Amino acid sequence: ALSERFESAWKSLRGQNKISAANVQEALREVRRALLEADANLQVVKDFVAEVSEKAQGAEVVSGVSPDQQFIKIVYDELVSVMGETNVPLKQVVPGPTVVLMAGLQGTGKTTATAKLALHLRKQERTALLVATDVYRPAAIDQLITLGKQIDVPVFDLGTDANPVEIALQGLEQARADGVDTVIIDTAGRLQIDQAMMGELAQIKDAVQPHEVLLVVDAMTGQEAANLTQTFHEQIGITGAILTKMDGDSRGGAALSVRQISGQPIKFIGVGEKVEALQPFYPERMASRILGMGDVLTLVEKAQEEVDLADAEKLQEKILSAKFDFNDFLKQTRLMKNMGSLAGIMKLIPGMGNKLSSDQLQQGEQQLKRCEAMISSMTLQERQNPELLSGSPSRRRRIARGAGYGEKDVGKLVSDFQRMRTMMQQMGQGNMGMPGMGGGF
Ligand code: GDP
Ligand code: MG
């Protein structure tokens, strides 16, 4: 697996205390080799590695995260970013019909994907009409009709003598008449890109003005996916892609090329011959697939956790150095929320995890919410100088009104906060307890 390749690269980083130009070189070379092995396109890989190199060398050193963890997170994040961050669903225009044009070489899985897509839409209560324009191979029309029957979705065809543009136009008419939600136009492909095929596709596109042009790419094509995407995007203009045959042993290097080159997202992946075998494309899943391992995700998560923890440690330093104010308190509660639950962060603090019951934790989270509401109603000055509040009932009244709590609640928050701060300072180095947990406001 690629993990083994990376393993050796990480070694050059492990044990170093910082990512530097010198020690990152070997790791970068390994990333490059690994991506090429995953069948990504050379130019795409070059651009990718250059980007990672820049980010890695500019990366801020995070305490508690080893350089190899930090590096792999940079690679992973960049992979996700190149592939588009999130899933982009199929467009839906209102009023319909939404028109989808399928494009791609022969044998990539266009006809199969046409049926898969219709089934996918039906699961979302959307209706579809499939249009068969591949008139060059009689079997192609039959194939679509058979698939349509299987999933109980109508297929429009005019036999093999009709003109593909005419079929597409009449199919669209039919869909309008029937009030169908989405028209999916299956097209002919050639074994190689040729002008006749491109010309016909362009004509169909001009005629029906599709909302989506989906390039169907066989994941096994590897490197070729880059040229293919470029040609189709230049000559036809695509809005997205479907990456098929991801159930094979392809590592998905093609996934990197498609968006990098066209700027358009992969929307679905095909994972088998059956009509059900279509899944939305998720960049994060593909990134870990390209890196080739489950443990990468764990590593990345661990690195992330430790980045959060480093923030938490900074705050604790502040607590101990007596500069802790309501702003810090707010930051801290938000940090806790980011990290999930209070229970989660308690576990990260040595010796705290087991001391609190789940009831206490729940109470703690509720108290945090109340505190957050009250602090949000304070002015900046008040947040920085909690003392302002102890001497001013009118300030406390104003905050109470703003937060929707009683004046007494605000008074208690202030006195508890001050008591806690004094306590924290007295505790000094030894116990790094979190404020407000045990005693409560
Ligand atoms: P077209 O020429 O582009 O219309 O391609 P077809 O839809 O006819 O598919 C060509 C072959 O690929 C057929 O045997 C399909 O069953 C197969 N196929 C299509 N999509 C997938 C997929 O996601 N996984 C696998 N394993 N086979 C697929
Ligand atoms: Mg076909």
UniProtKB/TrEMBL annotation:
One of its GO terms (biological process) is SRP-dependent cotranslational protein targeting to membrane. Its main location: cytoplasm. The keyword Lipid metabolism does not apply. GTP binds at residues 104-111, 186-190, 244-247. InterPro entries: AAA+_ATPase (IPR003593), P-loop_NTPase (IPR027417), Signal_recog_part_SRP54_M_sf (IPR036891), Signal_recog_particl_SRP54_hlx (IPR013822), Signal_recog_particle_SRP54_M (IPR004125), SRP (IPR004780), SRP54 (IPR022941), SRP54_GTPase_dom (IPR000897). NCBIfam families: ffh (TIGR00959). Involved in targeting and insertion of nascent membrane proteins into the cytoplasmic membrane. Binds to the hydrophobic signal sequence of the ribosome-nascent chain (RNC) as it emerges from the ribosomes. The SRP-RNC complex is then targeted to the cytoplasmic membrane where it interacts with the SRP receptor FtsY. Belongs to the GTP-binding SRP family. SRP54 subfamily. This is Signal recognition particle protein. It comes from Vasconcelosia minhoensis LEGE 07310. The gene is ffh.
